[in-house]
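Usage example:
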Amino acid sequence: MKIGNIVVGQSGGPTSAINASLAGVFQAAKDLGAEKIYGMRHGIEGILKEEFINLSQTLGSDSKVQLLKITPSSALGSCRYKLPKVEKDEQTYQKIFDILKKYDISHFFYIGGNDSMDTIQKLSSYGARIGSNITFIGIPKTIDNDLPLTDHTPGYGSAAKYIAAATKEVIYDASVYPFPAVTIMEIMGRDAGWLTAASSLSRGEDCDGPDLIYLPERPFDVEQFVDNVKEKMSQKYAVVIAVSEGLRDATGTYICDSLASKKVDAFGHRQLECTGKALTNMLEVLHCKTRAIELNTLQRCAAHMLSKTDIDESFQSGYEGVMAASKGETGKMVTFHRISNTPYQLEYRLSDINLIANQQRSVPGKYITKGGTDVSDSIREYIEPLIQGEYTPQYKNGVPSYFRF
Amino acid sequence: MKIGNIVVGQSGGPTSAINASLAGVFQAAKDLGAEKIYGMRHGIEGILKEEFINLSQTLGSDSKVQLLKITPSSALGSCRYKLPKVEKDEQTYQKIFDILKKYDISHFFYIGGNDSMDTIQKLSSYGARIGSNITFIGIPKTIDNDLPLTDHTPGYGSAAKYIAAATKEVIYDASVYPFPAVTIMEIMGRDAGWLTAASSLSRGEDCDGPDLIYLPERPFDVEQFVDNVKEKMSQKYAVVIAVSEGLRDATGTYICDSLASKKVDAFGHRQLECTGKALTNMLEVLHCKTRAIELNTLQRCAAHMLSKTDIDESFQSGYEGVMAASKGETGKMVTFHRISNTPYQLEYRLSDINLIANQQRSVPGKYITKGGTDVSDSIREYIEPLIQGEYTPQYKNGVPSYFRF
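Running the assembly step on the lines above writes:
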C-alpha cells in the first residue's frame, strides 16, 4: 500500500521524545513508499509561510534517523500558534488547505500536546466540511502526561526517569552535613502532578526519596507546609521536598504568584519567582539553611539519559499514526493502552480527537496520600515500566552528539 | 610493605568524584595490608566525636568498592569545620592527637578543597611540633578546579562533562521558537570560571554553544551586558548565555547582591537571589521572553554521567596518597601533572601543603576572549581530555543505584 505525500510538524514545548515520534512518522511514510515527506518549520506557522524541509533528502540514511530518534527538543522547530475559530477567520483555513493542495499533501501529522490536538480537531473538521480527502492525525507529546484517553504520553517516561535520578542525586548531595537544611526541588507540571510524583521513584534500598511531595492536584496551604517541614526536621537533618511548579492555594492562585505579589527588585520591577524559591523564603522562620533547585528545562531535554521504553513507544506512536492515516483514518490521535503490567505490554489505538483536544488528565486521588504530602507506593507500578531501559548517547569528544537539520 | 592503621575523611562540598578518591584510599590501604581502615564521619568532626566507620568491614567486597567509586556525594558525610589556630586553641589539637593515638592511627588522609588542605597543613605542622609519627596527606577534591600546583582537580572533569552536555541540551530546548528569547544558565564557581568555561565544550558540528560566556575573572558591567545581549539578539532568535554565579562588578560586589539589595518579599524579608535570575530582570528592557536556569547542585552530583577519566584519576589520587604516606611522606597533597596532551598523559606527584592551603587558581587571561564575553578555542585542549569516557550507572528499576553506608 503506497501513500501520497505527507507533511509532519511539531508543536508546543519540546521534549526528549518528540523527535523519536518524528522519526517514527518518517520511517513509516518511507516504508509505505510516500513520494514526498515534508517537515513543517515551526509547526502550523511553517505551513502558512510555506517553510518546509524535504525530509526524504535530509534524513536520507538510517543512521540519521537513528540519531534523530535520540535527539532532544523539536528538530523541526515548534510554535505556540493556536488556530482561530473558523467562524472568526475562515481565510486562514482556506490558506492552509490551498497550500496543502499546492504541495499535493494527502496526510497531515501533528506531534504535540493539548493545544496541538486542538489544531488537529479544527483542521479535520474543516476538512470534512469542505469535502477534503486529506487526513489529519495527532501524535501525542507532553512530558506532563496529562492527555486524556491514553495510558501515558510520549516524553513522560524520559522526563520521569531523569527526575527520579536527579532527585536521588540531589538527596545524596543534600545529606552530607550534620546540621539542619531544607532543599526544595521544583518540578514541572502546572496542572498535573505526574512529573512531581516521579520523584518518588528515587526511593529504594539506597535512598529514602523526598521527605515530602506536593502535587498541584491538592490545594496548598503555606502554614500547613511549614508545620510539615518542622515535623520532618525533628526527625533528621537533611529534609528534601519535591513540589510542583503549579501549586495553588485554596482560592486557586498559584503559590508563586501569591507569595511574590509585593516583590520588586532594585529597579522597581515586579519580581516573578519560582515556587520553590518562594517556599524557601517561607521557611526563614525555621532558621536553617535552605536551597531551592528548579529542574527547569533540564528535565525535558536530558537526552543523555533517555528511557528506552519511552523513546521506542514515541517512535512507534508516530509509526502507528502513519499506518492509520494510510487506512483513511482522520480526526484521531494515537493513544496508548496498557494491556498488562507484568510483563508490561502496550497496545496502540486511535481515539476521537474531539474527546482529547483541550482536555486534561490529573493524578487520581488514589495516588495522593498522607494528607497531600506524599504519593502512594502503588503509583510506582504505574510509572516504573515507563522508565525502563536506556539509550547510550553517541558521545563525540566527551559530549553527547545530536541530530541537527 | 605493610602499613599501620589509617583514617580517611571527606570535607567541603560534595562532588561526583570524592567517593572515587575514598575508594582509592581504601583500596591502597587494603593492598598494603593495613589492619584497620577507619572512615571519619563528617570529616574532622568525626574525629573529635570518635564517630568512625570500620571500612574494612563495610567495604568488604570488590563490588562494593566499585559501586562506591561511581557514587556521588560524600559517603562518609562532610563538614565545614575549620580548625582554630593552634595558638588560640591547642586543646583541640591535643584532643585530636589523643584520639588518633587511642585508635593507633599511623596515617591520616583528608579529601577536600582549599579549606580541607588548611586542616592538613595545621595538623601536620602540629604533629611535627610534638614529634608525632603520624603522616598527614591531602587528596584534592573540588569541582571548582581552583587548587594551585595541580593541573586540575578530581571532580572537575565530571562536572565539566555534565555542564557541557546540559548546555547543549538547554540550547536545543531554547532554540525551537521563531521569536526572540534569552536563556541565562548560571554555573557554579564563586571565584574561578573553570566550570562556566566548560559550557563552551557544547560547541561542535551539532551546536553553536553559548552566545556569550562570562567568567568571574573579569569585572562585570550590567550595561555592557545588556548591550552585548542586544547585539546577539539582532543576529538570532534564541540567545543562550552562560554566567558564573560569582560575577562581580568593578567594586568587587557580587552581582547577585548588588542587584538584589533592595528586594523584599511579601512578608518584608530581604530576598537573596541567584545571579542568572537577577540578570534576566535586567533584560526586561528588551521586551522578550527570558529564562534563568541554575544548574545548582545538579552539576556536582550528576553521577549518571561521569567522566571516566575524572573518576579513574580521582581513584588514583587516593591510591597514590596512601602509597606516599607509606613511604613516610607528610604535609603534602597529591597533585596532577600533565605530561602530554596527545596522547593525554598524567603523572601523580606530591606538593608541599603550605603552598596550597587557602590558595586559589583562576582561569588565566589567555583563555578569556572577546572583551570578557567568551573563552578561547584553546581552552578546549585543556578541558577536553578531562571529560573523556563514561561509567555506565548500575540501573535498578530504571534508576541509577548507588552505594550507601
